[in-house]
Structures are given as C-alpha cells and as structure tokens.
Amino acid sequence: MFEVNTMIKPFSVEPMLDLVNPANKKKMEETFAEVARQFGKNYPLIVGGERIFTEDKIVSLNPSNKVQVVGYVSKAKPTHVDKAIAAAEKAFDSWKRLDLRARAACLFRAASIMRKRRYELAAWVAYECGRSWGDADFDIVFTIENLEYYGTMVEHIRENKNLIHLGPNEDARMIYIPLGVGAVISPWNFPIALMGGMVGAAVVAGNAVLIKPSSLTPVVTYLFTEIMEQAGIPAGVINFLPGSGSEVGDYIIEHPRIRFIAFTGSKDVGVHINQLAAKQAPGQKWIKRVIMEMGGKDAIFVDSDVDNLDYTADAIINGAFGYQGQKCAACSRVIIHEKNYDALAEKIAERAKKLTVGPVENNPDQGPVVEEAAFRKIMNYIEIGRKEGKLLCGGVAGSDKGYFIMPTVFGDIQPDAVLAQEEIFGPVLSLIKVKSFEEGIEVFNNTIYGLTGAFFSSNRTHLEIAKQELHCGNLDLNTDCTYSIVGASPFGGFNMSGTDSKTGSTDFMSLFVQPKTIVEVF
Ligand code: NAP
Ligand code: MG
User: Fold this and answer.
1) Residue 104's domain is classified under what CATH number?
2) Cα–Cα 20 to 30 A to 99, which of 8, 189, 231, 520?
3) What distance in angstroms lies between residue 1's CA and the mean position of ligand 1's atoms?
4) Is residue 8 part of a domain?
C-alpha cells in the first residue's frame, strides 16, 4: 500500500467547473437536491480511527434557511483530546518512518477522490457556509490544488542540498524531520481548503494532527477527514475533534504534548492562541511552533491615472462582494484619488445595486452571511457607517429566511474611522478619498493589518513605488486583491495578519519540519 516509488507528476492548476454549461448546471441542481435529502444526520468524532458519538452536539445550520439543520456533530471534551494525543503519538511513530513519497501518494489519492466527488462536496460547502456555486466549487478546487501541490513538492523537505563539503574524510548532511503531534485549527470560510492545506502540509511532512474545525462547518470537515482516511492515511494520523474553541481548543493548545499549532482565523483568536502557546506547561519539553494566518483590512488603491474605470469598478466589486465579503483577502477599503472619486464611486454603487442576493441553491451573486452573530455584527457596523460616512447603496438586510445582507457601500469614510480600521468580514465597503498618490500610500498602510492589497494605475513610476511602499503580504497590481493561486502566488500576511507563512509555497512546508545536521568523520 505504501509504495515508495510513487510517480510524482508536475503540479498543475485545477480548472474550475463550467457552471454555465447546461449539463453541468443540471448536475449541480440535482446534487444540491440530493445533498439536501441527507440533512440532519449525526456525525461522530474520529479518534485513532474510532468513531465516538457524544451526547452534546454542535447543531450546524443552513445560513440560507435558518431553521434547516445541515447536521448534528459530536462535541469533543478534554478526555477525547487526551485520547487523541495518545493515538496520534502512536501513529506518528510509524507514519514518520515512511518515505516522503509514500506519504505524498496519500495526498494524491485524496485529491483524486475529491475530484470525483466534486459536485457533492461543493453542495455541502454551499449549504453549510452559504457559498454560491462557483465559490463553493472553488473551495474544492483549492483543496485539490493544496493537496497535490504539497504532494508534488515533497522533495523540498527531504534534505538541504546547499551545504559546502569540506573534505574527503567527512560527510555532513542536513536533513528535515517532522515535528511530532500538532493541532490544526481552521476557520469556517474556506472550510475544506484551509483545513486541507494545513493538514496536507503537516502530514506529508510526517506529523500527526488533531484537527479542531470551526463550529460553523463541522459537517464538511468531517467529510474531508473521512476522505483522508479513504486515501490511505492510517488511523491516528488525523484525529477529528470538533468542539468549542474556548473549551476544547484551549485545552489542545495548552497541552504539553502538542508540538505545533497551525491556525487560520481571526486576529483576536490568533493573538489569544499565541499567548497560550507561549506558556510552558508542566512536562512540556519544547517551544511550541505557532503558524498563524489571521484577518485583514485589505484595500484597493486607485491612482489618478487609470486607463479604465469600468474594469477597475468590476475588479472592486469582485474583491469586495465575492462570497459576501467573507474572505480574509476581501477588499473592504477603496482608496481613490480625488480625480476619480466621484466617477468611480458612482460605478461601484451602480454595480453593487445590481448584485442578486438569495439562497445558495439558486446560485445568486451573493448568498447569506454565515450565522446570526456575524449578521448582527455586520449590521452593527452598518449603523456605525451611517454616522461615519454617506450610504451609497444597501445598508439593509435581505429576506429574513436566512442571514442576508444587501451589498453596502459607504462613501466619504475617513482613514481613521471604525469602518476603515476594523475587519468587518461582510458585504460592506468603505470609500476613502485622497488628494495625492503619497497620501494614498499612507492611508493604505494605516491599519494594524497587512494581508492583501491592490493598486490600480497606468503610471509606471507609481507602480514601481507601490511595489516597494504598499506594505502587505500579497500585493496585486491592476487586478483585485483576492488573487491567489497555489504554487503561483503564495498567500500570507504581515503585521497582525499573521506570521506570513505563505501557504501554497515550499516555504510553508518547511514550517512543519525541523532540520537535523549529521556530521560523520571517517
Ligand atoms: P475565528 O473565530 O478566529 O475561529 C477560527 C478557529 O479558531 C475556529 O475553529 C474556532 O472554533 C477556533 N477558536 C475560537 N476560539 C478559540 C480558542 N479560544 N482556542 C482555540 N481555538 C479557538 O475565525 P472564523 O470566524 O472562523 O474565520 C474568519 C476569520 O478568519 C477572519 O478574521 C478572516 O480574515 C480569517 N481568515 C484568515 C485567512 C488567512 O489566510 N489569513 C484565511 C481565512 C480566514 P469555534 O468555531 O469553535 O469558535
Ligand atoms: Mg468567528
């Protein structure tokens, strides 16, 4: 089963489904109906391969239809964590000894299973997170790419080939070995892809993990865990432990036998985890490695010289309102040179008003926001926005059957306003007017975050200065700020946006290993 001579084909980008094609559209409609018939099932924890059902459950709801239960998922307690750590340590002992290529083969098989179940998985993601079709399909595409990329690139974490050899009577090598048992904590918004990316890199490197999914997306992450098992990853290497972040999450992080934590989520939770992980628990014999990707306050800056304001407005709409603005890379500030401000503001509002909002099975431009707490928080920001700026469109909720919010644009927002500083994570966009290119740079950099950003200009000098001065992990020129492709444009942010781990690169994989230098004199 664990062949070592697995063929590694070159990595290629996975094409998105063509959902305009009538046959594909029909298949998607049928799959949505079929998945809806499976709502309301019970899902267990997975600990060392064992299925454990608990009394206490997470009730996962469909945000397009608040009363509909997608599934009931068992909730882990600290005793399950202890059991999972023991199972993971046992599994780690043999998993770490397998050749990298044998481990990579598991990722290739998992990607292939997902490709075959693509429609079904996309429909589950759509229902559980409120994503429209293309967006939901993207989560599966992104997972396939993550798994195949980390599988394809395994040789990068075998050995450092750049050592200098000093003489004929000695041999020196620096090899990479796995870290041990770690925790992977993922957010709800790219529920399979971000979990899959972190888990893929961790396990291909030879580690074993406890996964703590978001309490909003436990069903789809259960399906992911099952697929990883079907692909041949042995019991105990991946343990599925949904549960409350503050209870089971904290317990995992503080556990002395957890060696690393890979986290993607909000700034506040990330900072909290970083603090917990820094404390040495009794019996702990290492410094926990912390890999963090957190929130953003991403901006698109539009210069005085832009060739095409329509193209720019389209890009802004895509960046701001794709997936209801619930991407870490979503554009939430547009900084506009005064020369273009009025014309561009009008074009943005005009387009935002035309976006359709509704339940995901109808494939609208915008689905619901993910849950009630998010809905309230976003509506509260809209109230703040009414005082801080001028409402250009939206500002109201949609049908109360689900958590719908109309695409909202505020003009005349000041750079220090709440709306210009805090991550909203919803369909709310703030426009900020600046008098010069230099002022635009200052406003762009004026938050605690530094995840993504974009600059639109036809001025070559400004483009070159922007490359140097706009301080964010992913900077896009003349395209919107949500551009990220596995292996082609690795992802990760500066400042309070995280540890800049650059997912989708070989650098990311290096975070899951430790180098060991071995010298022999003979
Ligand atoms: P979140 O509220 O921070 O939750 C992320 C994960 O942390 C969830 O699994 C959550 O579990 C868990 N958690 C919460 N409190 C915890 C605690 N005390 N100890 C341990 N774990 C805990 O984030 P979210 O709302 O799911 O996702 C949205 C955020 O993620 C946004 O800020 C977005 O920008 C960011 N994000 C960043 C990236 C990136 O690559 N930089 C990508 C996607 C999303 P529960 O659900 O049980 O609370
Ligand atoms: Mg949250």
Assistant:
1) 3.40.605.10
2) 520
3) 36
4) no
In this structure, which amino acid lies at residue 146? Answer: N
SS3 213: coil
Amino acid 516 reads K
Q: Is residue 22 part of a domain?
A: no
Q: SS3 for 424?
A: coil
Residue type at position 83: K
Cα of 206 vs its chain's centroid, Å: 22
Closest CA to 257 of 239, 273, 281: 281
Count the alpha carbons within 13 Å of 41 in the hemisphere toward its beta carbon: 13
Residues 144 and 263 in one domain: yes
**pLDDT for 4:** 57
The ligand 1 atom at the shortest distance from the C-alpha of residue 451 is: 41
**CATH number (domain holding residue 396):** 3.40.309.10
DSSP string of 47-82, one letter each residue: ETTEEE--SSEEEEEETTEEEEEEEEEE---HHHHH
Atom of ligand 1 lying closest to residue 213 CA: 9
Mutate which of 128, 194, 214, 381 for ligand 1? The one with the most ligand atoms within 8 Å of its CB, which is 214
pTM of the model: 0.97
Pairing of strands 45-47, 50-52: antiparallel
2 within some domain: no
Distance CA 431, CA 272 (A): 31
Angle at 340 between CA 335 and CA 342, to 5 degrees: 95
Q: Among all residues, which ones are annotated catalytic?
A: 293, 328
Q: Work out the mean pLDDT of the chain and round it to a whole number.
A: 97
User: Which residue range forms the structural domain that includes residue 390?
Assistant: 298-487
Q: E strands of 104-162, at which residues?
A: none
Pick the atom of ligand 1 nearest to 243's CA.
47
Instruction: Please state the domain count of the chain.
Output: 2
Mean pLDDT of 226-241: 98
- Three-point CA angle 468, 473, 474, nearest 5°: 90
Spacing, Cα 213 to ligand 1 middle (Å):
9
**Could you tell me if 305 and 290 lie in one domain?**
no
Q: Does residue 62 belong to any structural domain of this protein? A: yes
- What residue has token string 């503001």? 345
Ligand 1 mutation pick, 61, 266, 268, 298, max ligand atoms within 8 A of CB: 266
- Is 289 found in the same domain as 166? yes
334: its two tokens: 């547009």
Q: To test the ligand 1 pocket, which listed residue (57, 267, 269) has its Cβ within 8 A of the most ligand atoms?
A: 269
Residues 125 and 244 in one domain: yes
The answer, yes or no, to whether residue 342 has pLDDT greater than 90, is yes
Rounded average pLDDT over 495-522: 97
pLDDT of residue 287: 98
Distance between CA atoms of residues 442 and 97, nearest Å: 51
Ligand 1 cavity residues, CB under 6 Å: 185-190, 194, 212-216, 244-246, 249-250, 253, 264-266, 269, 272-273, 293-296, 328, 423, 425, 451, 491, 493, 497-498
Write the pLDDT tens digit of every residue in 294-335. 999 999 999 999 989 999 999 999 999 999 999 999 999 999
